[in-house]
UniProtKB/TrEMBL annotation, chains A, B:
Listed name of the protein: CinA-like protein
Alphabetized HAMAP family for the sequence: CinA_B (MF_00226_B)
CDD domains per the UniProt record, alphabetical: cinA
InterPro entries in UniProt: CinA, CinA-like_C, CinA_C, CinA_KH, Competence-induced_CinA, MoaB/Mog-like_dom_sf, MoaB/Mog_dom
MoaB/Mog domain segment(s): 7-173
Organism of provenance: Algoriphagus confluentis
One family name in Pfam for this protein: CinA
PANTHER family for the chain: NICOTINAMIDE-NUCLEOTIDE AMIDOHYDROLASE PNCC (PTHR13939), NMN AMIDOHYDROLASE-LIKE PROTEIN YFAY (PTHR13939:SF0)
Upper classification of the organism: Bacteria, Pseudomonadati, Bacteroidota, Cytophagia, Cytophagales
Family the UniProt entry places it in: Belongs to the CinA family.
């Protein structure tokens, strides 16, 4: 089955000049991907007649579905509407229903209308008017030669509402959507090329209709399996068969599936086992606590943390021995062990995690250069430590330490299980 | 003067399918805008031979400078490198220097290489090899017919380093850039339209060749002044004159200029006065500590922090009275005052900052709905508090609390000065 091909066009000088980040195109991609529409291109053009018309023409060549955001404001530099009329060869005329909608929008908000706002109810005569309940610029739907176009405002929540209320429900009525099944395997603690090497035999034996993509990000690699076919249930089963084959090979790196994050995965582990967590963060400076507490409901297992940024507080708050700090230094296996044990006790937690390292750019030495980090995980009857040799970049060192600390907990946890 | 026209091409199925958000193109736009290069188009294409080649050809038609990100991984679906070779009509060959760089990159990290990684040192013979010091995929620079191309990895920090170390310094040597002077005024604690209203007379009197842009972001608004002319020194003086006029009007909202952040501004204030800081974070969960410690050298003024996520630790670690928690609750002015005073004492700091609130999505009540947050700043002889009424979104509430806490310190600080 041939997939419906889509192009997303974002219009506005502010996008090209970096004044506003285009989050719309990303969101639209995700929604289209879920329903099996293949986005083949994203284009961003400025408020320029020739560029916009050229983008329309190129998109019509490439795609069956063209989704346009932006350029619908009431001011003169907003060109999308007149250019759509020009492109489709019709006039901009009054749509009484649209004028009425804009008028009542202003009335509801208790705001006064300008003549420019009334013109927002004037639309190309060849479009289908799509009401925008949360803003003043209507959606416009066009059909020509078996291709479908939708123009939407650039304001994200207005665009999303038009997508959810109109575009996504309309699509299955006008185009043939495929049967598609996605599953993403989330891994941590292994690089993309190492992972590829480990699973190359499995990858080479994947059936034709199941595709694999590697999606690396800071310390993580996602493996996305996408299956195409006729029957969703069958595809799901086929993907699950492949997952059962690959998991044993990469078991120790897998922390979850689909939208799961390392933070939510760890939260689930802790919650299911009724265990609690406390953190002592030196070089990571609160970043791990932040990650853990972004998860709704984390108060069920997160007791608290200490960031003893100065060594004296590693002693006074966490009970690290001054002898340990003197003999081995703050960035040492011995210190992170005492920090992890100390914070575990302070917060009466099942697991105590700690970090201490040279985040940089200063503070490095020949023995302990910038990027040297020790981390520890303490439990009732065990202590695990790791030494990391990270980068020259402070922010990256903080982030990579965060991933490593959470991953260490995951590994300690599976090792202890109950 | 004719501006250099640029196109940014992002390559990768993961971008089209919405698995990864393309933040690179946005960042590149901002950097090009600063040096007076006009971005005329942003294009995103998938890992598809014909689409990538078509994008190259169209970009060469439209632009003088083509910046490409992504598609440079070691795996088979990464097509950028062979297609650049094909497009420019040359072979992919071994660059001994690049192979050496990849090899030593792995050696430094203490990680083993795969044969795929060695191939990352093989590049189109017609490119200039640009070393990537922070990753394994090199940059590639091409010149043809007076047009310039740069291919960079999609990993944001690698791309940024190549832009900063190579592309931005190289541009003025190969193309004519306009004389432009930018200065950004950083404000916090006031909305865009309120700010616009305050400074409208000043704005209306700006000279023709100095433009103003409002760049709002989470809790902040940046005011960017851009002056166009012939002489950089003159432009700088003219902008400074305007800044001296506007600052008195918006004084209390301004925390810095240009790349300064609220974190670095506060660091400067503390460092210059020889004062120290400690944090007690409940609802912000470590986020403020993270912000403070992203600043290099923050150990000079940051003593440490406690995240007492459970109420019992507000008592046992910070010394909040159980009576206070019982009577007023954890989310109350009284509690944050005791938290701020307690953490100030625990870490022997000049300033103690605290937060406690309902981040959501659960935990709200009629009296204290989701988004209710109390913050406090304690000094030797003063205590300042604020109540915030934020949003329904947990992540947003954490971030906005972070901005508000740091801003409260800024205000307390200026009020105490010495």
């Amino acid at each position: 089955m041939k997939l419906v091909r889509a192009e997303i066009i974002a219009i506005g000088d502010e996008l090209l000049y970096g004044q506003i980040m285009d989050t719309n195109s990303h969101w639209i991609s995700q929604e289209l991907d879920l329903v099996g529409v293949k986005v083949v291109r994203k284009t961003t053009v400025g408020d320029n007649r020739a560029d916009i018309l050229a983008a329309f023409a190129a998109a019509e060549e490439r795609a069956d579905l063209i989704l346009i955001t932006g350029g619908l404001g009431p001011t003169q530099d907003d060109l999308t509407k007149p250019l759509l009329a020009e492109y489709f060869g019709c006039e901009v005329v009054e749509f009484p229903q649209a004028v009425e909608a804009v008028t009542s929008f202003f009335k509801r908000r208790g705001r006064e209308m300008t003549p420019l706002n009334i013109l927002q109810g004037h639309l190309p005569s060849c479009c289908t008017y799509v009401p925008n309940e949360v803003g003043t610029a209507p959606g416009m739907w066009f059909e020509r030669g078996g291709k479908y176009w939708m123009s939407m405002p650039g304001v994200p929540h207005e665009m999303k509402k038009l997508m959810k209320d109109f575009v996504l429900p309309t699509l299955p009525k006008v185009v043939a959507l495929p049967v598609i099944y996605h599953k993403v395997i989330k891994t941590v603690g292994i690089g993309e090329s190492w992972l590829a090497d480990l699973i190359k035999d499995w990858e080479n034996n994947l059936p034709e209709h199941i595709r694999l993509a590697y999606l690396p990000s800071l310390g993580h690699v996602k493996l996305r399996l996408t299956a195409f076919g006729d029957n969703l249930k069958t595809l799901e089963q086929e993907v699950e068969v492949q997952i059962r084959l690959v998991i044993p090979i990469i078991d120790k790196y897998v922390y979850g599936f689909n939208s799961e994050t390392l933070e939510t995965a760890i939260g689930k582990l802790l919650k299911n086992a009724g265990k609690t967590l406390a953190l002592a963060e030196s070089c990571s400076g609160g970043y791990v606590s932040h990650l853990v507490t972004t998860v709704p409901g984390s108060s069920a297992y997160f007791q608290g943390s200490v960031v003893p940024y100065h060594n004296q507080f590693k002693e006074s708050v966490l009970g690290v021995k001054s002898k340990t700090l003197e003999t081995f230094g703050a960035v040492s296996e011995e210190t992170v062990q005492e920090m992890a044990a100390g914070v575990r006790k302070l917060f009466n937690a099942d697991f105590g995690l700690s970090s201490s390292g040279v985040a940089g750019p200063d503070g490095g030495s020949e023995e302990k250069p910038v990027g040297t980090v020790w981390i520890a995980c303490a439990g009732e009857d065990f202590m695990e430590t790791r030494k990391l040799q990270l980068t020259q970049d402070r922010m990256l060192n903080i982030q990579l330490t965060g991933v490593a600390v959470l991953n260490l907990l995951r590994m300690c946890f599976s090792r202890k299980d109950k």
